[in-house]
Structures are given as structure tokens and as C-alpha cells.
Amino acid sequence: MFNDFKLMDDRPIYIQLKDYLKKKITNGQLLAHQKLPSTRELSKLLSISRNTVLTAYADLEQEGFIFAVKGKGHFVDAVETAKSPAIHLDWTQKTNTTTQLAEALDLMKHGVRRTKEMISFNSIAPDEALFDVENVKRAFLQRMAIEGHIVLNYGYAKGYKPLIDYLLHYMEMKGVDIANKDMLITNGFTEGLDILLSSLQKNSGRILCENPTHHSALKLFKLHGYEVQGIDMEDDGMAIDALDQALSEHTFDLAYLIPSYHNPTGIVTSSEKRMALMRRLSEQQIPIIEDGFNEELRYSGSHLAPLATFAGQGNQVIYVSSFSKILFPGLRVGWILADKALIHSLESVKRARTIHSSTLDQALLYQYLHDGYFEKYLKKVKAAYKKKYECTVYYCKHYLPYKRLAGDGGLHLFIELEDALDARKLLKLCLQKGVSFFPGDVFYTDNKGKNTLRLGFSRLKEEEIALGIQTIGHILKHEYGG
Amino acid sequence: MFNDFKLMDDRPIYIQLKDYLKKKITNGQLLAHQKLPSTRELSKLLSISRNTVLTAYADLEQEGFIFAVKGKGHFVDAVETAKSPAIHLDWTQKTNTTTQLAEALDLMKHGVRRTKEMISFNSIAPDEALFDVENVKRAFLQRMAIEGHIVLNYGYAKGYKPLIDYLLHYMEMKGVDIANKDMLITNGFTEGLDILLSSLQKNSGRILCENPTHHSALKLFKLHGYEVQGIDMEDDGMAIDALDQALSEHTFDLAYLIPSYHNPTGIVTSSEKRMALMRRLSEQQIPIIEDGFNEELRYSGSHLAPLATFAGQGNQVIYVSSFSKILFPGLRVGWILADKALIHSLESVKRARTIHSSTLDQALLYQYLHDGYFEKYLKKVKAAYKKKYECTVYYCKHYLPYKRLAGDGGLHLFIELEDALDARKLLKLCLQKGVSFFPGDVFYTDNKGKNTLRLGFSRLKEEEIALGIQTIGHILKHEYGG
Fold it and tell me: Domain named HTH gntR-type: which ranges (chains A, B) (predicted)?
């Protein structure tokens, strides 16, 4: 009867024995009131220690799967296995249109599965070879020693207090006036944006942003039913005349801007343009969601203040960011810095939706920042990414016949090919040669950008960057259309 | 000029010096092109090592706050401090009605602030004194040693694969047929429920549940615009005749059920009632959201299978749970076990909203489960909570003049006072004596339950339980209405 017991993995043996017996009980192979072998017999039969069997029986008894009769041994309990008639619902017909749209816009479901050998310029995630796992461990152990019990229990919807205080100070060091501001910790940038879009009143239902723009943001605008108006990008940021035109034609509920290392173009909005944007949007009283994306990854040049700094004592800027592209995206921590009254409202939305973000993630990040590991790490990764950036620019300039190349730093470049070329057709050819990239059209608000592509270089080695770009260049010159 | 430099905290000194200088630059106390003291001068002036100043200057240069001129020293860079005209928006007027409702229903904002000395029966969070922080550390270090780099980088929207596999097996051990099922990892139970309510089609717009029910679930139903129909509870679960009545009068999009240690009543739905519920809801093809809340906290009696087990090969049950009330709620990990096609859709919603849940939380939980710490811990906490449960029952029976007492185990009891009594009035009197509890009316779907209260005992010591209940009893007998 028990000769089919096998150790499946490296979990404790008594747990595997429990599982084995539970399964026999729940699937009816062992019947209610059936007598089990004595612990001595079973230990002999299965060649495991009697203690293991004792522990397993004690647990099963405690969990109500078996019962003991003094002097008689152990018996199977009357575990309910009765099944109601099985019914089958067609769940594909039960999701709403927003969910169907989320699926349609889910690039992960419609993209190319990349193989290990492929040179992929798709990702702009950090290079995990750079992670300083040792200092993460140190920060964890340090925080657990200080208040492990607090870290593991429920926290506050707004976030972990020491982290909030640290990040408020951090933003103040960027020149942001934090009086009358407050902060909500979120599961990364994306949850921050989603909570905002869920919470703010829709009037015109129109949102203004750069064109192209961050795909996840664009997806959320659409899922929240916004009409999106993109403004074309120039080399130093949004085209101000096109902005003026749009502002004269329509009213907008919100503007969404990525002033530094704009995704996908990599453009840094100049100081003058930041000022011009702020002036125009302030005049129209349009709230600004500023995406702090990659702001930390400045490789050279003067410090550029975020729009939140330009706003001074004003409260029209909602700054949303995370360190995900620099530090560890596996820790889901982002933040919204905004007017105190707004944060107070958002706190209730956050609580209703997820109670709060992982206290462990927040506490670990706090300790890592506090102990100065972040500063050291940032220097290391900036140096590494700068080299990759320069390498990518070099190979693009020498091997890619492009019309326009954008990207002042960050973790990616944006390429505009000649108008008649189609990046998706190019991608098909490249995939056959083991090279992949992101076709740029998915970033556009107006179905344009068929001739554009994004090259993320953060996770590639220099020789892969070289070979990958040479391959794309070769195909463009010799095989495309041929 | 630099004599106001003070060390503020225990962060590295060079970082504090950087912050000090940054602040002077961004607020205009140091002007563009102004010369900074030499590293030697500043180190002497501030009595800190010259290396500290060197590191700070190098960093500030790298970040674009200052620049160096060979042979001449360091100068302040032209950091943008220009401010656009400050505008002030009234954010209280810019949130939508759902957000305003979330604030109105946010118990944390309207509840009583408890003081440290107070005996509070409000919480049903785990007792942090029981946490085995040491094994959490072990599991963390073990997982980081195995794949620290993977744990810290982006993961999958569905969740961390080893954890999903573990939990699928775990559910199978409860007798659930997992063929054609799949799992989505969420930020605790609450996010799971919110994602479901956001994703499923609304037809009748009506949802069926126990009355009273879990407050956070009730809040989410309202925020998602559902009309909620509660069915009264008997000692062994929902009143079946009332259910039949409701089913004959209305159609429902969903049923939400908490079969074990129901919140707030603590009632365990009997095997017979589980079968009866399944049969009726299956007949009407009504999908069931089963809340696995506290299912693991069975102190005695036979094992009771979840509704998901009763469903057999059927796919109408969506099982949502977490270990938050047993293990560590600071780790935000919950799961949805449901039909494969449904999970495939929900995955896109999860990705759009938060990319994925913390990989660190998931990986740590996985290792903790895998290494058998969970089994050991569960035994320990069950023993501890069982004692508190019995203690609470004892004192209620001896000191509280109640009409009905419910709660077969778990972390709380539910008290129904005589009909004419008002638990909120009682609470006011109790607060004056330093005792607090949850008035039960917030759990009701129909504004009833004015005479009910929930007593959470998980975080109290036995002497606090005794004193607290004696106090409530004394007030009821001698002071209420007096």
C-alpha cells in the first residue's frame, strides 16, 4: 500500500510524508476510519526514521486528517472529499472590455520570445551583473537587527516612515520645496501612475504628453479612458510651438512629462524648455505628472533640476519616480511626491487597493540608502552604463544608416530611419540573424513612428552591442527590401 | 561661511557634506562660478578628514553641481534655480467620487487613535512577538546565495515561478484539482480581490456575500459600484433559506464567501453547508470568490476542505488568499488560484497596474516555506493563539452579558449584545477606561449590527484579555445607560 512513497525534493522528509498521506486521504485511497500502520511499521516499510513518522502523524492529527485512539493507533479522519457537480464557465467571456484592452496592449504577450543566444536590445532593465548583492545582504541584516518584528508586521498605507523621511530629504536636495508636500510609497512608478489616474477627476478626459512616450504610461492612459494628445519631440525637449497650438485648441486634465532621459527617445529636456513648459502649463492651471525616470543617470553636464523644483512653492507638479532602473527592480518601491491634501486622498485609495507596499522592501531600501551604499553603487553603475552608452553611440554612428539618433545618456538610444523604412519589417530580418530590438511605433500616440526603433543597451556586453548594431546595419544596407 | 555645518545623523560624513553644499547651491547661498574653499582649507575649517572633502567634491562634480578648473580649484556650476510663478491648485476639488468614497470608508481615518497603554481588541494582525525573525534571516540569506541577482531584478507579472509551483502543490494537498488552473501572485489578498473586481464583467451589478462580512471586501465592492446583498449567518454558516430567497429574487454576478473563521463572526461553515452553497451557486452558474482567510488556523476538529476542493474539476471557484494573518503581513504576498484562462487575463491587468509583486518578498517566502520553517512556525502560533482564544472565550462567558457569541477559532470573536444596546455608545464608555474594540456595524451590508462588536485577541496578553473583557462587562452591567 505504501510502497509508492518517494522523496520528491529536498524539503524536510516529514513534510513530504505528510503530503504523501494527505494526498491518499483527500483522493480517497485511504478511507475514513481506516487504520494506519504503526509508526514503527511505517518507518521500517519506508526506511525512514521513526521520529519522522511520529512528527508527520502528530501534524496530521493536529490538522484534522487523522485521529489517534489510545492503545489502538492512528485512523483516517472523515475528511470531506464530496464534490459538487463540476460546472465549467467560459472565463474568456467574463472579463470586461478594459481587461481585454489590457491584454491587447500587453507587449509581453505579443512580443517576440527571445532565446538565450539572441542579442536583444529590448530591455532597459538594469544589468544584474552590477548588483552589489553583498551590501543588500548587509542592509537587510542591519535593518532586521534594528526592528525585524516591525518590518515583518503590518505597516502604514502611506509607507515606511524612515524611508519617506529619507526620500523627502533626497528630493529637497534636488531643490524641491517640500513644505506642504507629502509622499506616498507605491509598488514602483507604475502603481503610482495607476493610483493617480484612478483618483483624479476627469473633466475634458484629455491628457497631454510627449510623442513618443513611455509605453506603460500610454497603456494606462488608454485603460483609464483618456484621449491622449502627444506633442512631437525636438532634440532639447517638446516642440513648444506644437504645445502652444494644442493648448489653444483643447483643454487638458493632465500633462505627463519625462524631462530626463525621456523614454523612448533618451532626450533630456533643456533648462530653458523646462522653464517654458512650466510657464505655459501653469498659465492654464494644468497639473503635471513628472516622471523622474532615470534622472539619476546623468553621465556629464550640469545638474538639471526636476520640474518639481521649478514649481517652487506651487503645488501643480506631482513627481512620481522609483530607483527601479538604477537599483533593484525586484524590490517594488516607488514614490509620489505631491501636495499634502492630494497625498492624504491617495493614501485611502492605496489602502483600499493593497493595504500598503512591502515593508520589507521599503525597510531594506531605506537601510541601503542610509548606509551610503546607494551613493557608491550609483557611481559604479554610472561609469559602467556610460561606457555602454558611448559604445552604442559609436557603433550606431559608424554602422547604422539612420536619419536621426537621439539619446543624451540613460540606458537606451532612439533611432529614426528614413521615412519609407519599416522597423517591424527590419525586425523580422534581424530576428533571423539573432538580433532583436523594440519597434518604436508602440511608443507613439498617433500611430506614427513606423520608421523608429529603441535600442536598450543596459544588459548587453560591449561585444554584443558591436555585433548587434553591425548586424542591423548590414541588413539595412544589403538585405532590407532586397 | 561654512561654520553652520553640523553632522545631522549617522550617515557617512561625505554624504552629509555633499547634502550641505547641495543645499547651499540650490537655494542660492552659493552662486554660480563662486570659488569653493580648497579641500585642505575646508577639511581644516570643518574638522573633518581631507579625504572626506575630496570624495564629496568629486561626487558633486560628477553630479554637475560644481566644476573643477585645473590648478585653480573648484567652482559652483550654473545650477538651475529659476522658479516659474508658483500656482496653487485646490487638490481637494480634483479627486473623483470614487476616491472621496474611499476616504469616507477608510476606517483608519475615522477610527480611534489608540494610545500605547490602551487595551485594544481592534487588531486581528499577527502577534509580532511570535515572529521567528531568525529563520526569516536564514531563508533570506539562503535564497540570496542561490540567486540573489535574479531576486533583485525584474520578475514576471504572474509571480515568482518557484513560489507559484510551491503554492499550487500546497493547494493540491488541500484536495484542490489544479488541472486547468493557474495562479497569479498579488500584493496580499486585498490586491487580488481588487484586480478581480476591476477585471470581471458587470451584468446585474449585484454581488452576494455573508452578512456581516470582511470590511475591506465590502469597501472594495462599493468602490467598484456593486450592489451588495448580504445573507445572514447562522452558527454553521450562511442561512440557506435566506440564500434561496435571494437567488429566487435576483441574479448575481458574483458570490464572495469566507468559509473558515469568517470575518468578523469567526464562524466556520460546516461541511454540509459548504456542499449546499456549492450546489445552489453552481445551479445558477454564479462564480464564487472564496476568501481563504485564516483557513490555516484550525485549532481542533477534522480537516475541512475549501470550496475550491468541492468544485472538483469545475472552474467556478476563484480562491484568493495569503498567509498575512499567520505569517508576516509586512511581506505583501497573496495569490489567486483560478481557471487558467482567467489567470491569463488577470496577468495583463496585474502587469499594467504594478508590473509584478516584490520578487524579494516572494523569493523569501518561498524559501521559508520550502525549508519547512512555515510548518514549524504554524504549530507554534496555533498553540499560542489557541490559548488566547480559549482565554477570550472564558472571560466573555463569565463577564460579558451577551445575547450571542460567535467564533470557532481564528484570531477574533464576535459578540451580539441585546438588541437595544448600541456598541458605539459602549465603545465611548470603554475608551474612557482605556479599552477599545471594533463596533460591528461597519461589517454589515444593510446598516444593521448596531448591537455587535468584534474582539480581536491576537496581539494581547492573557492578562490584558482578562482585564479588557472584565472592563467591558462591568461597563455594560453598571454604567451603560446609567
Answer: 11-79
CA A393, distance to chain mean position in Å, is: 26
Helix axes B13-26, B50-62, angle to 10 degrees: 50
Q: Which tens digit of pLDDT belongs to each residue from A227-242?
A: 999 999 999 999 999 9
Q: Does domain A131-374 have CATH number 3.90.1330.10?
A: no
Alpha-carbon distance of B344 to A95, in angstroms, equals 11
Q: Do A372 and B12 touch (CB under 8 A)?
A: yes
For residue B168, the distance in angstroms to the closest alpha carbon of chain A comes to: 13
Burial class from Cβ neighbours inside 10 Å (0-12, 13-18, 19+) for residue B436 reads buried
How does pLDDT run across B103-141, given as a tens digit for each residue? 999 998 987 666 778 999 999 999 999 999 999 999 999
Which chain B residues are closer than 8 Å to A339 by Cβ? 89, 91
Do B311 and A220 count as a contact with CB atoms less than 8 A apart? no
- Domain ranges in chain B are 13-76, 99-126+380-479, 132-374
How much of chain A exceeds pLDDT 70, in percent?
99
Enter the C-alpha cell of residue B246.
Answer: 435571494
A286 Cβ contact list (under 8 Å, min separation 6): A208, A252, A253, A254, A255, A316
pLDDT value of position A82? 62
Place of cell 487523522: A66
Shortest Cα–Cα distance, B474 to chain A (Å): 32
- What is the ipTM metric for this complex? 0.95
Nearest CB to B223; choose among A79, A152, A352: A352
Task: Please give the Cα distance from B476 to B482 (Å, whole number).
Answer: 10
CB-nearest to B302 from A78, A105, A304 is A78
Residue from B152, B174, B178, B219 whose CB has the most chain A CBs within 10 Å, to mutate: B152
Angular region, B263: left φ>0, alpha ψ -120 to 50, beta rest:
beta
Contacts of A338 in chain B (CB under 8 A): 91
| Nearest Cβ partner for A131 among B84, B152, B154 | B152
As a whole number of angstroms, the distance between CA A212 and CA A449 comes to: 8
| Residues of chain B with C-beta less than 8 angstroms from the C-beta of A129 | 149
Q: Does domain A99-126+380-479 have CATH number 3.90.1150.10?
A: yes
Architecture of the domain spanning B13-76? Orthogonal Bundle (1.10)
Q: How far apart are CA B467 and CA B482, in angstroms?
A: 22
Structural class in CATH, domain B132-374: alpha beta
Q: What is the pLDDT of residue A110?
A: 85
Question: Which chain B residues are within 8 Å of A105, Cβ to Cβ?
Answer: 348, 352
CB contact under 8 A, A349 and B102: yes
Distance CA(A8)–CA(A13), nearest Å, equals: 9
Q: Which of A271, A329, A342 sits opposite B154 (nearest CB)?
A: A329
Nearest to B173 among A23, A62, A330 (CB): A23
Same fold for the pair B99-126+380-479 and B132-374: no
